[in-house]
Amino acid sequence: MMRITIRPFQEVRLLARPSRILRPFSSAARTLGTAETDTSVSSSSTASSSSRIGRISESLIRPSPTPHVSATEDKTTVSWPDGRTTTFDNYFLFDHCRCPKCFHSKTKQRLKELNQIPDDIRPVAVEVDNSGVHLSWSTSEEHKSTFPFEFLRRSAYDPPLSSYRDATEGRVLWNSKIAQSPPSVVYEDIIRSDDEALKSERAILKLLNRVHDFGFCFVNNVPATPEKTQELIEKIAPIRHTHYGGFWEFTADQSHGDLAYSNEGLPCHTDTTYFTDPAGLQIFHLLSHPSPPGTGGTTLLVDGFYTASLLSTLYPTSYSLLSRLRIPAHASGTEGTMLRPPLSQPAFRHDEKGQLTQVRWNNEDRGVLGQGWSAEEVKGWYQAARRYDELNKSEDAEYWVQLGPGTMLVIDNWRVMHGRSAFTGARQMCGAYVGADDWSSRRTALTKKHEIRKKSILDDDWSVGW
């Protein structure tokens, strides 16, 4: 079982590239009970690699660009000046050739089919210079590929060069002390005149970077009207339409069969677990809640990645079960709507590198468990879920904030859970969903355009497809 290391959270500094994550408080470990002594993980579990939550990449090593490269009939080996060696299957390298015959530089798409690659493809000549590795191939027609060193470092798989696995770079795990300095931007920086479009884009990128880093961000000074709120959201990314509509306004009128449309308190949860592809961003703006006479309605935020990191450290077997066992979810309270994804998913989902990518946690929308599970897995899942629920409801994890008109809240729904306390009085909210792919694409495109974060040393053709 891989273990994460997390530094204690003392304060948040809103840096362009935050570089720290949190270590579970020792007091929290004592309060929450004794950690499991059995750290075994089922061979079918993903948690042996998936418990690498929020891992910050090692300092990038920049060796001189003169590795030694050799090739055989099956593989090509790169020996780096720092002493490391990586091996590539020849088929893999030829498949990733980005010469004009193989890759369209305008559309950034492959032009070569897999069945066009000979089974016995191999380099017949190898050259190395400052621009990279040049391979001439054993094809009937002359074919030469050039691979930049940075591509070979980043794509290495046998073994992987972990120094270049930086997908979670900048992520900051947080707890209740985020209240000391929560991430925020201001409305006026985003909504600008047409002749200040570049400044507006930089402000949007600043917002999305903070959502990426912290899982949420406030936008202050937003005019308290539905029209201006919708304009702001559409400036950030396309609104996702669902059975709730696109941009929505709601009060506690039960117009939809969902507890959000009531005045009851809601425990922390992620939204739309009943979608095959849950919403990426959840965006709220409290337009009005006169107080008095209204009371309550305080917003709750919990960093699901932070509490998952605690679970991984304290109860690794429980983390494994929540990473492996698939939980059905449904939305059946609105007439004419019966949502139940054909593919159920576990509470914790991980990317191809084993890093935690998504938390799907909604007790209210959870369906009937146990299909295809063993009796031991049913019992184990309930124990794991209770432990995770306890961590989420701890004083250490809960960040409570009273929203008011003029403050829009943007939440990464794949990471940060939200809830609220019960309320009285007339409370009017508006907001929208944004797809995960849409806001990620917007952030990546703006980063590339404005080069605010680490500039890639790969050229345009080689910087895509990761």
Automatic annotation (TrEMBL):
Its EC number is 1.14.11.8. Its cofactor is Fe(2+); L-ascorbate. It comes from Kwoniella heveanensis BCC8398. GO terms for biological process: carnitine biosynthetic process. Residues 71-153 form the Gamma-butyrobetaine hydroxylase-like N-terminal domain. Residues 40-62 have a biased composition (Low complexity). Keywords: Carnitine biosynthesis, Dioxygenase, Iron, Metal-binding, Oxidoreductase. The keyword DNA repair does not apply. CDD domains: CAS_like. Belongs to the gamma-BBH/TMLD family. It catalyses: N(6),N(6),N(6)-trimethyl-L-lysine + 2-oxoglutarate + O2 = (3S)-3-hydroxy-N(6),N(6),N(6)-trimethyl-L-lysine + succinate + CO2. This is trimethyllysine dioxygenase. Residues 32-77 are annotated as: Disordered. GO terms for molecular function: iron ion binding; trimethyllysine dioxygenase activity. PANTHER family: GAMMA-BUTYROBETAINE HYDROXYLASE-RELATED, TRIMETHYLLYSINE DIOXYGENASE, MITOCHONDRIAL. Residues 203-433 form the TauD/TfdA-like domain. Pathway: Amine and polyamine biosynthesis; carnitine biosynthesis. GO terms for cellular component: mitochondrion. Converts trimethyllysine (TML) into hydroxytrimethyllysine (HTML). InterPro entries: AlphaKG_dependent_hydroxylases (IPR050411), GBBH-like_N (IPR010376), GBBH-like_N_sf (IPR038492), TauD-like_sf (IPR042098), TauD/TfdA-like (IPR003819), Trimethyllysine_dOase (IPR012776). The keyword Metal-binding applies.
